């Protein structure tokens, strides 16, 4: 087992396909051949390049590595293995992607179910199977629920759309699920969020007399439900609680069903309710998704930017809608990418996407989308509304209020233009504004790119991870136990230590593991993608194995020193400030002044 870092949940295999099979498949499949089925590639040194199929561009920034077996776009950030490419480009589910690739190399996908920590209870119950069974039950109940059918018809929904989204109905009553789950006391029903257990141990169905909307993850598995009341009642929408499968801040309703339409349109609309998504799809606008009872998160934005050129946040025009929009803006700033657009649409008073599109139709709604306010304009308009621009004090306050937002923007050109606009409004130079905001000047276009080995931007742990990714067999040279002291250590990035620990564990089991797929869906996925992307520019062939081994051990030494330096520094300060040290303390203090050594055998 890995170190007990609470910030993680570790990766998992699909419930129907063992992780061992997935890794074997990726070791047999050539990602270059997979991508070339859909995108023409050109050789560029050790890699292949093309114009990115996931966003519009004229200069190729999409790179495929035959040695590392993953693709990465330096423009939009799209990244993944051969399986990931099939999911993202072909719009198929995870299982279908695996089956397609397996067929191409003559492999038979096993039908045996394997354990999946994230989807299994302690008793071995498969939560995915439990949720699927519940969804089938809810759909069956809808067929005979005239009141629910009439409600959906009034909302303009057809049977085909209801089938596409798997819509069902939860009967009114306390224990209706007992009809499909005879063991109503099973822990899996509570673990899946279907049943609530009261203080006195009494159980009852969470969803009662509600239209049921299955929530599906990117692999096509049902992970939870949203239930909407038919008439008046609170809450209007009731979601599954967060479970081992369902994390609201990571999932979006309708993303799985709308993947193809989003790609075709190059646009995705973010709305607030399930009915909005379904009603828009009914009207021919299949590129809408909804958050799941929570504000838009950075993870939501990141997912959507991988799917589309433009994100339109669509909110009611009331105060609550504007607060939700501002929260979405705040959580989008660090994710912004030059060449992609985020905008905000506020509907007329009393309207939501559902009512508007039913009343005026697809064409009118899409015209409304064309008038959405770009993020940069929404940001500046909102900040300007808070101050008096006719006074020096008001303009100074504008710059002060804008700073925490502007400095988060990583999109180079967009950030620069927003700062220029701010400086113009305030009546100061852009150079003065950049200096006050701590923005560094861009290097000349012909300057050399920073070396990967630059110690200024890479921590000791990061250096070790990069070398380990280049040569997984190096894992046998070090001891994972040395990382235990890193937990909570000052100036040590816990996420990097967690990844390093996981990599040592994974590579000790199999040095051929494709970690991009292994970490899919886990908390470390984004860090793995980021580091893999940096390694694309590393001239791997120019390094001899002995040189990499020596550098790896050297960087490991530096990491262990950095890990242990925190407690040493604290003890050194305590002794330094103490008067009348004992002989033992004097000896300890002298030892603490000496450079730290590690005992790795080389």
What does this structure look like?
- The protein has helices at 19-28, 31-36, 82-90, 94-104, 127-143, 146-154, 159-164, 187-191, 255-265, 274-282, 298-307, 319-330, 353-370, 375-384, 392-406, 412-426, 430-437, 460-470, 494-509, 515-518, 525-535, 545-577, 583-593, and strands at 42-44, 47-50, 62-65, 70-73, 79-80, 168-170, 195-197, 203-205, 210-216, 222-229, 237-239, 267-271, 288-290, 310-316, 341-347, 373-374.
- It is α+β, with helices and mostly antiparallel strands and 602 residues long.
- The strands form four sheets. The protein has a five-stranded antiparallel sheet. A five-stranded mixed sheet has the order 13-12-14-15-16, sandwiched between helices. Strands 6-9-10-11 form a four-stranded antiparallel sheet, covered by helices on one side.
- Strand 10 and strand 11 (237-239) form a beta hairpin.
């Amino acid at each position: 087992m890995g170190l007990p870092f609470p910030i993680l949940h570790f990766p998992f295999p699909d419930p129907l396909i063992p992780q061992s099979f997935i890794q074997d498949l990726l070791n047999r499949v050539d990602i270059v051949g997979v991508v070339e089925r859909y995108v023409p590639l050109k050789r560029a040194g050790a890699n292949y390049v093309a114009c990115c199929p996931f966003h519009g561009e004229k200069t190729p920034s999409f790179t495929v590595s035959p040695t590392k077996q993953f693709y990465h776009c330096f423009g939009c950030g799209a990244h993944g293995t051969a399986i990931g490419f099939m999911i993202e480009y072909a719009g198929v589910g995870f299982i279908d992607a695996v089956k397609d690739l397996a067929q191409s190399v003559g492999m038979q996908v096993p039908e045996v179910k394997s354990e999946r920590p994230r989807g299994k209870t302690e008793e071995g119950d498969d939560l995915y199977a439990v949720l699927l069974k519940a969804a089938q039950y809810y759909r069956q109940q809808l067929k005979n629920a005239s009141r629910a059918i009439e409600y959906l018809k009034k909302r303009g929904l057809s049977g085909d759309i209801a089938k596409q989204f798997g819509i069902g109905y939860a009967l009114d009553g306390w224990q209706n699920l007992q009809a499909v789950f005879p063991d109503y006391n099973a822990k899996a029903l509570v673990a899946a969020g279907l049943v609530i257990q009261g203080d006195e141990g009494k159980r009852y169905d969470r969803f009662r007399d509600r239209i049921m909307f299955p929530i599906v993850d990117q692999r096509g598995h049902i992970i939870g439900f949203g239930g909407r009341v038919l008439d008046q009642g609170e809450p209007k929408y009731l979601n599954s609680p967060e479970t081992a499968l369902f994390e609201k801040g990571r999932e979006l309703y309708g993303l799985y069903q709308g993947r193809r339409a989003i790609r075709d349109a190059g646009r995705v609309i973010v709305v607030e309710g399930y009915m909005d998504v379904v009603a828009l799809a009914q009207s021919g606008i299949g590129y809408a998704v909804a958050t799941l009872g929570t504000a838009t998160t950075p993870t939501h934005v990141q997912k959507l930017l991988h799917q589309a050129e433009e994100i339109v946040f669509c909110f009611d025009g009331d105060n609550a809608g504007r607060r939700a929009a501002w929260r979405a803006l705040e959580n989008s700033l660090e994710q912004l990418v030059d060449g992609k657009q985020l905008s905000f649409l506020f509907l007329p008073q009393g309207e939501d996407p559902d009512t508007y599109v039913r009343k005026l139709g697809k064409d009118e709604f899409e015209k409304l989308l064309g008038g959405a306010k770009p993020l940069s304009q929404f940001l500046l308009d909102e900040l300007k509304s808070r101050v008096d621009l006719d006074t020096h004090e008001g303009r100074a306050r504008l710059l002060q209020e804008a700073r925490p937002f502007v400095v988060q923007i990583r999109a180079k050109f967009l950030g620069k233009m927003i700062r220029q606009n701010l400086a113009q409004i305030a009546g100061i130079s852009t150079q003065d504004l950049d200096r006050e905001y701590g923005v560094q000047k861009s290097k000349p276009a012909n300057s050399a790119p920073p070396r990967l080995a630059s110690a200024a931007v890479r921590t000791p742990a990061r250096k070790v991870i990069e070398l380990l990714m280049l040569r997984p067999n190096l894992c046998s040279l070090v001891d994972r136990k040395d990382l235990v002291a890193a937990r909570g250590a000052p100036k040590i990035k816990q996420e990097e230590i967690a990844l390093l620990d996981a990599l040592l564990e994974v590579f000790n089991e199999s040095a051929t593991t494709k970690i991009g797929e292994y970490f899919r869906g886990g908390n470390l996925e984004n860090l793995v993608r980021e580091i893999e992307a940096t390694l694309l520019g590393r001239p791997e062939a120019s390094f001899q194995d002995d040189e990499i081994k020596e550098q790896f051990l050297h960087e490991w030494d530096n990491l262990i020193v950095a890990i242990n330096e925190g407690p040493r520094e604290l003890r050194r300060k305590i002794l330094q400030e103490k008067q009348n040290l004992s002989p033992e303390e004097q000896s300890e203090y002298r030892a603490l002044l000496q450079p730290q050594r590690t005992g790795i055998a080389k």
